[in-house]
Design a protein that fits this description.
The protein is of the alpha+beta class. The protein folds into two domains: about 40 residues; about 130 residues, no CATH class. Helix content is about 40%, strand content about 25%. The chain contains four helices and seven strands, in the order H-H-H-E-E-E-H-E-E-E-E. Strands 1-2-3-7-6-5-4 form a seven-stranded antiparallel beta sheet. Strand 1 and strand 2 form a beta hairpin. Helix 2 crosses helix 4. The longest helix has about 35 residues.
């Protein structure tokens, strides 16, 4: 009888410990996600500007000059749109264009970043160094240090323009 009671107490302890671990794990994961969501658009754009000055985008540690093998070793097999010179990671919202197996362009479609408005970009980045228009898209180019940041907007009208992606090259 005493052994059965000890076994029941042991399993009750394991259950309680597992439940506590689950609650802690969920709370930590939620805090990390809400931390990213709670960033203001201005903060995301400031981070984008800082990362661009280093040849990176906000959702990847890899930057201009990174090697293809390093990316595939960490991120795994790229998505179906990938080629030998283009690595697409749709679940990570990032793509890499390569020359000689080194990154020359990085394209981010970070969902939080894509919510920014043109007026918010102008507030953080100022007036674009160059504006290009093609096929209903507007490209705002900014020179940031040794790199260029390109905001690709879906519509020419600044009041309804939707950000499609941000490229660093």
């Amino acid at each position: 009888m005493k052994i059965k009671k000890e076994i029941r107490v042991f399993f009750a302890f394991l259950f309680a410990a597992g439940l506590l671990f689950s609650v802690i794990h969920v709370n930590i994961a939620s805090a990390a996600q809400s931390s990213n969501r709670s960033k203001s658009n201005e903060q995301l754009l400031e981070e984008t500007k800082q990362d661009a000055s280093e040849g990176k985008v906000i959702n990847s540690r890899f930057g201009i000059g990174s090697e293809k093998d390093a990316i595939t070793n960490e991120y795994g097999k790229p998505g179906p749109k990938s080629t030998s010179d283009f690595l697409d990671y749709p679940k990570r919202h990032v793509s890499f264009e390569l020359e000689n197996k080194r990154v020359v362009w990085i394209i981010t479609k970070d969902p939080n970043l894509l919510k920014v408005k043109q007026s918010e970009v102008e507030k953080v980045f100022g007036e674009p160094d160059h504006v290009g228009i093609a096929a209903g898209h507007v490209y705002w180019n900014y020179k940031i240090g040794n790199y260029e940041v390109i905001f690709n907007w879906q519509n020419v009208d600044p009041d309804v323009g939707k950000l499609l992606d941000v490229t660093v090259r």
